[in-house]
Design a protein that fits this description.
Radius of gyration: 21 Å
Helix content: 40-55%
CATH architecture of the largest domain: Alpha-Beta Barrel
CATH topology of the largest domain: TIM Barrel
CATH class of the largest domain: Alpha Beta
Oligomer: single chain
Number of helices: 15
Strand order of the largest sheet: 3-2-1-8-7-6-5-4
Order of helices and strands: EHEHEHHEHEHEHEHEHEEHHHHHH
Distance between the termini: 30 Å
Shape: globular
Number of domains: 2
Length: about 375
């Protein structure tokens, strides 16, 4: 296991082409909730390369109202009452059936319905949904657990034991909020410690929707892999997702929905994904262009490489970072990751001081510094 890509509705052609040519560092793709039927080509390319294919049901959004929930399996028009769902076996089975029916035939692992876990009851509800799913499929089942970033240790211990006892061999953990640019070291430690508990129970753990935090956790051996979208889904903020699903979509003059999900341009030098406008301004500046950009594949043949095809660039840049870690002996991976993050901090500070327009926000370095400090602590402890 290593890097997983979540597909947006329009990503599949680029993903198919990328996987058909190169896939080092990539272990899985996750098909889009509402557009999976159009993503068969990407799924076929993944299977051909021995890469797992999953499906994202997004049921964690269904216990709150929203204006964009049509097409999510199990959606009934009304929010789920999780207390009622916990007590009603028939209702749970109906939801499980809806999610299984929505899974394309091309998947190699099944994702059960899941909800945000705030307390023990909701933790046990997620476990029951995972067990019910496993009883109705011959494929491996990989549950998703969305937990508070600073989760109760007793709950983590119980969930890890119970999932392992249920025969679950791999799991995706999402901690909320986590993975933004302002995370402190205590929050990062808590997430890594929780992942360790599940791994100690014999499970393979993926840190879901987690960019720099996920890569650092992978380098340190706290997780077996991590996932991102293409220019998005690099952090988890469940409350923010729920808030956005209640906002009416922006429509054009013909009443059609404008735009789509935000996808940015990944600049490896600063380990950050920026808007197209800001990335262009930096890459057009000859002072810093080569220090921020990319030389892989087509990016090496263009002065503005990452901007020309930001999806393909995102995949080959992220995959190359993970492939480099995989090619590094495990005892040296932490140092390699520290070097990457330290360079990113230095370049972010350079951009902030000399290459930032007045209306551009500062590039925050708190999360990167937390990761560097955490890695150094673990390295010191390991040799003490």
């Amino acid at each position: 296991m290593s890097l997983e890509f979540h597909l947006n509705a329009q990503d599949h052609l680029k993903v198919e082409d990328f996987l058909s040519r190169e896939h080092s560092g990539v272990s899985a793709i996750v098909l889009h909730t509402k557009s999976a039927k159009h993503q068969q080509g990407a799924a076929d390319a993944a299977v051909d390369k021995g890469i797992d294919v999953l499906y994202d049901p997004r049921t964690e959004r269904l216990d709150a109202p929203g204006l964009t929930l049509d097409g999510i399996p199990g959606y009934t028009g009304e929010p789920y009452d999780l207390a009622v769902l916990a007590s009603n076996l028939g209702a749970r089975q109906k939801l499980v059936d809806a999610v299984l029916d929505a899974h394309p035939d091309s998947v190699t692992m099944v994702t059960p319905p899941h909800f945000m876990v705030r307390d023990e009851r909701e933790g046990m509800l997620n476990l029951a949904l995972a067990e019910a799913t496993a009883l109705h499929t011959d494929l491996p089942v990989r549950p998703v657990l969305t937990l508070r970033a600073r989760v109760n240790q007793e709950l983590i211990n119980r969930l890890a034991r119970d999932y392992a006892s249920a025969g679950i061999s791999s799991i995706e953990l999402r901690f909320t909020p986590l993975g933004g640019e302002n995370d402190g070291i205590q929050k990062v430690r808590s997430a890594f410690a929780a992942a360790d508990v599940f791994r100690e129970q014999g499970m393979r753990v993926v840190l879901g929707r987690s960019g720099n935090v996920g890569q650092a956790g992978f380098a340190l051996g706290h997780v077996d892999g991590f996932s991102v979208g293409l220019g998005q889904m690099e952090h988890v903020n469940h409350a923010g997702d729920i808030s956005r699903q209640n906002r009416p979509p922006k429509l054009d003059e013909d009443g059609k929905r404008k735009g789509g999900a935000w996808q940015g341009v990944y600049l490896p030098g600063i380990a950050a994904t920026l808007s197209m406008k800001r990335a262009r301004a930096l890459l057009e500046h000859s002072d810093v262009r080569t220090r921020l950009g990319c030389r892989i594949d087509a990016c090496g043949q263009s002065l503005l490489g990452p901007l020309d095809d930001y999806r393909s660039h995102y995949m080959h840049a992220r995959a190359a970072e993970v492939a480099n870690l995989l090619a590094t002996p495990e005892p040296w991976r932490a140092k390699r990751e520290t070097d990457r993050l330290t360079r990113a901090i230095e370049l972010r500070e350079l951009v902030n001081s000399s290459y930032r327009a007045d209306n551009d926000p500062q590039l925050n370095t708190r999360t990167l510094r937390s990761l560097v400090d955490g890695i150094e602590e673990e390295r010191t402890s390991a040799v003490a």
